[in-house]
């Protein structure tokens, strides 16, 4: 930017929607903690409460952190693209690591209690989402974060990456909703239909998950809120294109 130029600002409404998304995200984490703490005995690793680490980790990793990773390009609009990419990949990687802890927790809990694995719709959808999310992360790092992929190959893959990023976020929320329902039917099937407090709290968590997904999705799909390329990024992009397509960058200059 030129000296004396006004600092860049965010588009009207973007900051408000991002703030709402974070408020919803923190609220759904608090609601998850309240549910597990008040009605399910809390969370502990080497104990009968190990299973409870599963819903907490999946909500934190596969929903909240994944949603924030998707918002990085809207929030950090005027920072260097390389730094924004690194933060995007880091948040996704952290989400994967936390989700992996949640998956380990449920498998170990099932083994300890003699419960069979991978028979429910929730487990099928959840595992498929995690595996695809891991694949998406590796491909994203390979195409965009590390050098090697040509400009045309990056251009071809970028729409696929964007689509699957949003699709996996939706699938993550859907898997959580299936998991909440499954857990309620296992734990309070006899009283769930009587509007008991635990059922109401868990249903509220489900509504918060949907609300968080809707707000994040709205921010991501507003065309005018997309991150504009900086002038130096356009120049670097053209140089990268000529280099990877076998031409002489800048006419040999």
UniProtKB/TrEMBL annotation:
According to the record, the segments passing through the membrane are 12-36, 56-76, 88-107, 127-149, 161-180, 200-220
The species is Vidua chalybeata (Village indigobird)
Residues annotated as domain Cytochrome b561: 20-221
Q: Does the keyword Plastid apply?
A: no
Q: What is this protein called?
A: Transmembrane ascorbate-dependent reductase CYB561
The annotated topology with respect to the bilayer is: Multi-pass membrane protein
GO CC annotations, alphabetized = chromaffin granule membrane; lysosomal membrane
Where is it located?
Cytoplasmic vesicle, Secretory vesicle, Chromaffin granule membrane
Q: Which GO terms describe its molecular function?
A: metal ion binding; oxidoreductase activity
One Pfam family recorded for the sequence: Cytochrom_B561
Concerning SMART domains, the annotation shows: B561
Q: Which UniProt keywords apply?
A: Cytoplasmic vesicle, Electron transport, Heme, Iron, Membrane, Metal-binding, Translocase, Transmembrane, Transmembrane helix, Transport
Source domain of life is Eukaryota
Reactions accelerated catalytically: monodehydro-L-ascorbate radical(out) + L-ascorbate(in) = monodehydro-L-ascorbate radical(in) + L-ascorbate(out)
Cofactor(s) this protein cannot do without: heme b
Q: What is the protein's known function?
A: Transmembrane reductase that uses ascorbate as an electron donor in the cytoplasm and transfers electrons across membranes to reduce monodehydro-L-ascorbate radical in the lumen of secretory vesicles. It is therefore involved the regeneration and homeostasis within secretory vesicles of ascorbate which in turn provides reducing equivalents needed to support the activity of intravesicular enzymes.
KW Electron transport (keyword) present: yes
